[in-house]
Amino acid sequence: MPQRRTPVRGRYYEDFVVGERYRHHWGRTITEGEAALFSTWTMNANPLYFNRVYARSLGHPTAPVNPLLAMNVVFGLSVEDLSEQALAHLGYWAMRFRAPVYPGDTLFSESEVLDKRPSESKADRGIVHVRTTGLNQDGRRVLDYERRILVKKREAYGARS
Amino acid sequence: MIDPPEGAPEVERAAARIATWPTTRRDNYFEDFAEGDVIVHPRGRTIGESEQMALTNLVLNTAQLHFNQALCDGDPKTYFGGRRVVFGGLVLAFVCGLASEETTENALAELSFDEGRHQAPVFAGDTLFAESTVLEKRPADRPDAGIVKFRLLGKNQRGEIVLTIDREVLVQRRPGAAP
């Protein structure tokens, strides 16, 4: 029998298990045009990210991807697993850029749940602490960071979605 | 006009002009920062409605509170009074952009961010400003650059701090300067 389905995306607080790792789906190839566009769109003045002549003078084969775009993509890829049911993204810790990203590279994202605890002030939510790692097509780590996310509890919000 | 032939003196002069082009400013090298300096970055940037949604989707962020107004209207208590909040990763990128001409234009690499907190939400229509404090300077493992640690603040049009984050940047030393 055909069924009408309404899938819910994103994990609630109860769904996170400390120690679990998620390999986030999709992956995303960064093209040269969008790399330069993101950098100039956000008014980043470092020509390293949008001037190939200058980037080559500094020893790069071509203009590298602005690390803030790489980080945003790695973060974006993690959202469906980590924070699609979040109430807020609280902050970042220990973010390190470990290898340059070049146009044509494909970024993959994975995360590990480091810790979770209920909110002290509000019973309907909890704080999830994760480490997210961005990898390129060779499996090489290009960046990683920790973040803390304020996530809905299923018991409080599950019926609303 | 016919271009001069390959190897002609004017061709070499033209190429030499590009090779020595002043691509970056000369007042934001490693030597130009002192610990304790506070730099109030001169430009503000208003975040537009359509661009914040476009950039959120460009980076594949699927959290609906950034781009589904009906969701926010349906539960304003949960979603910032019924307003779509701007994705924090973009707030960070814009604040770094605002700070870049004075801090990272001559950077060789972003090394790290730490202690980053989104202290207040940003909405479309808000205007972002940036301020940097030089926390620390130290040599790098290469002679032509040094590491500068900044505390970067993002503020809105009311002067409220929306983002605070510490960052380490590998900044070029002034060309020809003794390390």
Describe the protein in words.
The complex is a heterodimer of chains A (161) and B (179). Chain A is α+β, with helices and mostly antiparallel strands. Chain A has one domain: Thiol Ester Dehydrase, Chain A, CATH 3.10.129.10. In chain A, 22% of the residues lie in helices and 33% in strands. In chain A, strands 1, 2, 3, 4, 5 and 6 form a six-stranded antiparallel β-sheet that branches. In chain A, strand 4 and strand 5 form a beta hairpin. Chain A is elongated and about 55 Å long. The model of chain A has no long low-confidence stretch (mean pLDDT 96). With 179 residues, chain B is of the alpha+beta class. Chain B has one domain: Hotdog Thioesterase (Thiol Ester Dehydrase, Chain A). Helix content of chain B is 24%, strand content 30%. In chain B, strands 1, 2, 3, 4, 5 and 6 form a six-stranded antiparallel β-sheet that branches. The longest helix of chain B has 16 residues. Chain B is globular. The relative contact order of chain B is 0.20. The model of chain B has no long low-confidence stretch (mean pLDDT 95). Strand 3 of chain A pairs antiparallel with strand 3 of chain B, so a sheet runs across the interface.
Classified in CATH, the superfamily of chain B is Hotdog Thioesterase
Distance between the termini of chain B: 48 Å
Percent strand of chain A equals 25-35%
Structural class of chain A: alpha+beta
Instruction: Give the biggest sheet of chain A.
Output: 6 strands, antiparallel
Strand tally of chain A: 6
The helix/strand order of chain B is HEEHHHEEEE
The name CATH uses for the topology of chain A is: Thiol Ester Dehydrase, Chain A
Biggest interface between chains? A-B, 49 and 49 residues
What is the helix tally of chain B? Answer: 4
What is the H/E order of chain A? EEHHHEEEEH
Structural domains of chain B: how many: 1
| CATH architectural type of chain B | Roll
Give the rounded overall mean pLDDT of chain A. 96
- The CA-CA distance between the termini of chain A, in Å, is 25 Å
Mean pLDDT over the full residue set of chain B: 95
The CATH superfamily title of chain A: Hotdog Thioesterase
Structure classification of chain B:
alpha+beta
Fraction of residues of chain A in helices? Answer: 10-25%
Low-confidence stretches of chain B: none
